[in-house]
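Lab notebook, bench 4. Still working through the backlog of constructs that have no structural model yet. Next entry is a single chain of 361 residues. Request: give me the structure tokens for it.
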Amino acid sequence: MIPFPLLPTPIETSYRACTIPYRFPRDNPKIATPTEISWINVFANSIPSFKKRAESDTTVPDAPARAEIFAKRYAGILEDWKKDPESNGGPPDGIILGRVREHLLRELGFMDIFKKVKDEENAKAISLFPEVVSLSDAIEDDTERLENLVRGIFAGNIFDLGSAQLAEVFSRDGISFLASCQNLVPRPWVIDDLDNFQTKWIKRPWKKAVIFVDNSGADIILGILPFARELLRRGTQVVLAANELPAINDVTYTELTDIVSQLKDENGQLLGVDTSKLLIANSGNDLAVIDLSRVSQELAYLSSDADLVILEGMGRGIETNLYAQFKCDSLNIGMVKHIEVAQFLGGRLYDCVFKYNEVQS
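Model written out:
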């Protein structure tokens, strides 16, 4: 694992992964800050849905008993952090809170508790892919088509089982992609640089884009892949960077490879668009957030000459890396699905972030 090559150097002073500061140097190291307590509670509220998924994991012997152990141990660690932020490898932040949860699950044999729902949602989304793409292709105006594709990314990003509230809605009612496209919060969004991005988009400047992708199902298949297909059609080489190991319902490198192979026709095209410039990379990541100071050597090699970096989803693009600076143009795009993030940004729950940073040459 090495630093992402498009981060400015020195990494140690120029890059901080977590967007929200959980504490400041003046804070007492032995007393949890209000922000730490708030986010510890966010992760505590997710325990029931994770326990339920783990209990039904048929690949794990004694899954219900092990799921109970996971729930008690993780809840205990979270309570320890409230009492002493320096316990259990703390003080906690968004990366540590997620890392400990995933470590506990894997230690108990739960390698991918969302596998079943991911497979089901991928199959549904694959069946809808031609319709979504045809609706996009029918829009003749370039800027209107781009906005439609962007709205598709936001709509797909709703499929996030890491949000306790959305996990409940999903298990009860399901989530409709096309309805979600129509029901996005109106512009202007909490961060809305779409007009600036559209201006650059028309000039067709990017030779190579790296997209850090997020969730399975509608997110990757109906949101990101139509957008990536449009980039390909405009001559941009596209690298899709996906997790090495499962985390929540995020798509993995192997799953994404399989999805793209199913969507390609016998000529290797995505509904008429050549995919010879489409690459899928293993990011080396195993969390729902990402620390770009550590990525796989494969991704680093493929990314070194990119001129556009896209971080998609709340975990990679908002909760981490929202203020990250790169040596090239960058785009953060995702939906706000935690009220704590909405409050930090001064926006609304389910608000949208479209943050474009153009590097002046």
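Notes after review: The mean pLDDT is 92. The two ends are 29 Å apart (CA to CA). Flag for follow-up if needed.
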